[in-house]
Amino acid sequence: MVATNPLTADDLAAMEEELGAGRHELVEGELQSMAAAFVDHGEVAGEFAGHLWSVATPRRLGKVFGAETGFILRRDPDTVRVPDVALVRTERLPPLAKRHAFMPEAPDIAVEVASDSDRRRLLPAKIAMDLARGVSLVWVADPLDRTVTVHAPHAEPRVLGEDDVLEAVGVLPGFAVRVGEFFPTE
């Protein structure tokens, strides 16, 4: 068997054009690719982005990022993760001159939409790594059962139903949205 050198975040950045459509992450130096998402996935992710944006942006509390944004969670070997939606608090944002690169650290909030079997299979490891590398909150939205599971460091996951309120206590003050608001009604 021929050993290969692990890829780096710089390698991934250089490959983006040739990799094409879909989402590409680097996990401990190995490339992982996922197909483009379906409509329900994108719709739910868009709802999360809109609700986060409506609280964070007017109050200058942070920036919301879409699924194209890479976050470096580990170096040597490199791990670059791409959540469906992410929020980084203002005080943690890199200066404007350094934003033409992957985010050099984990987001404060990562949102994942569990929409197909491949993504669902990869979620437990992704959540564990996110929490171990500094993500304060990981929210997993499930369009099939219309729930959001809240993951936080050193806490048991909490499953919230449509009538429950999702909050970002300690991360994004003022964020409180009924879970049903994230899922389509028609």
Automatic annotation (TrEMBL):
Xref: Gene3D superfamilies: tt1808, chain A
Residue intervals of the Putative restriction endonuclease domain: 12-179
CDD domains recorded: DUF820-like (cd06260)
Pfam families: Uma2
Domain of life: Bacteria
Listed PANTHER family: SLL0198 PROTEIN, SLL0198 PROTEIN-RELATED
Protein name as it appears in the record: Putative restriction endonuclease domain-containing protein
Organism expressing this protein natively: uncultured Thermomicrobiales bacterium
